[in-house]
Every structure is written in C-alpha cells, then in structure tokens.
Amino acid sequence: MRIHLDQIREPGFPVDEVLPPPAVNAALEADGAESVFHAAGEGHLKGMLRRVDAGVLVDARLTVPVEAECGRCLQTVRLELDVPFTLTLRPRPKVAAPAQGVDPVKAERAVEKAERHQDSETAGSFTLDDADEDVFEGKTIDLDPIYREQLLLALPMNALCEESCQGLCSRCGQNLNDAKCGCDVREVDPRLAALKNVKLN
Ligand SMILES: [Zn+2]
Ligand SMILES: [Zn+2]
Q1: Phi and psi angles of residue 162, each rounded to the nearest 5 degrees, phi first
Q2: For position 128, what pLDDT does the model report?
Q3: Are 75 and 163 in contact (CB under 8 A)?
Q4: Fewest beta carbons less than 10 Å away: which of 30, 41, 121, 147?
C-alpha cells in the first residue's frame, strides 16, 4: 500500500486497510523463515498519516488474528494481535547524482564522505525516540514493510496455549492439561539411554 506524499494533506491521510489472510501470511514469512503462526482471518490497519517537520508521522493500529499450534500440546492457539504504533518517517537524505563530466570515482568518494559525515553526526545521539523512526525513499510511503515489521515484533517467541502448558504425555499422548494418564514417565535422557547400551570391558 503506497501513498504519495501529495496525498497527505491537512488534517491527515486516513488509512483504513483490510489485510486479507494471504497478505498476512506473506507478512509473517517476510523474513524468509517459515512461521509457526498463520492468519486466522483478515487483519486491519487503521490510522492516520500526517506531515510533520521531520517528515511523515504514522499513527496507526494493526489488528490481526493469528493462529498456531501450541508448541507443547498441539492445541490451536489463537491470538488477537492488537498493535498500536507511532512512527516518524524521515525522507532518506538525497545523494546527488554525479554531474556529467565528473570523475565517477571521485563522485563516489564524495558520497562516501558525505555518508560518513552523516554517521558521525547521528552517532552518539541515539535516544529512545530514534527507535520509532524509519526512512522512506522518494515521494512515496510504502506501508507494507512497516506493518510487516510491527506484526513480526508483536508475535510471541513461542506459541503456547498457556505459559504453564503441561504438554502431551510422551508415552500415550494424553493431553496432560486435561488429565493425568498414570504412565511411568520417568524420562530417560536419550543420551544416557545410549550410554546404558555401551558395553564396558
Ligand atoms: Zn499447550
Ligand atoms: Zn501417558
């Protein structure tokens, strides 16, 4: 979803987007890894884009229902992610195109120098607010990578139905959250089990 800067006028550009499940699933796997979570319905991105001195302020809320299998008991876990976020988007500083007749190597060096200068300017000035900043290229703002990042940040590390989930009995498969099964589950560490079979001379 791309918004041209010219579309953002007073009092702001309202965003009200439905995120269909395939788009949510693509976002969940945006970093290339297979996600244990998948869309459990359509998501929504609602908010407002405003011009501010520094660039564009995104004030939005992402809501997405997701599902996964509990990592211990395999029951379906459903989460209603609700992520309000505020982000300042700054235009990426323009790098002047080398003028005709300028030695490209020299131009390249000049650019590198300019970039180093920028780095040294920003180094050491990190504040908490900087964490909620991003840059955009040219004259358009692409909200897709922005909501993808927010989505990935909001996902828990593990999919668990409950932090205290007891999981399944390793012998009979009984869901131990529902009932105890009475199996003898004094677990033998597989590495120790292998040792037991080692014949000692
Ligand atoms: Zn569970
Ligand atoms: Zn059992």
Answers
A1: -150, 150
A2: 43
A3: no
A4: 121
CA of 47 to the centre of ligand 1 (A): 35
Model pLDDT, residue 65: 97
Kindly report the backbone phi and psi dihedral angles of residue 138, in degrees, each rounded to the nearest multiple of 5, phi listed first: 60, -135
Query: Strand 133-136 vs strand 76-91: parallel, antiparallel, or unpaired?
Result: parallel
What does the pLDDT look like over 129-149, one tens digit per residue? 445 888 888 889 999 999 999
In contact, 141 and 51? CB cutoff 8 Å: no
Confidence bin at 92 (pLDDT 50/70/90): confident
CA distance linking residue 122 with residue 133, whole number of Å: 13
Residue 68 Cα to ligand 1 middle (Å): 11
Sign of the alpha-carbon dihedral angle for 140, 57, 85, 46: negative
Ligand 1 centre to CA of 169 (Å) is: 12
What is the identity of the amino acid at 121? E
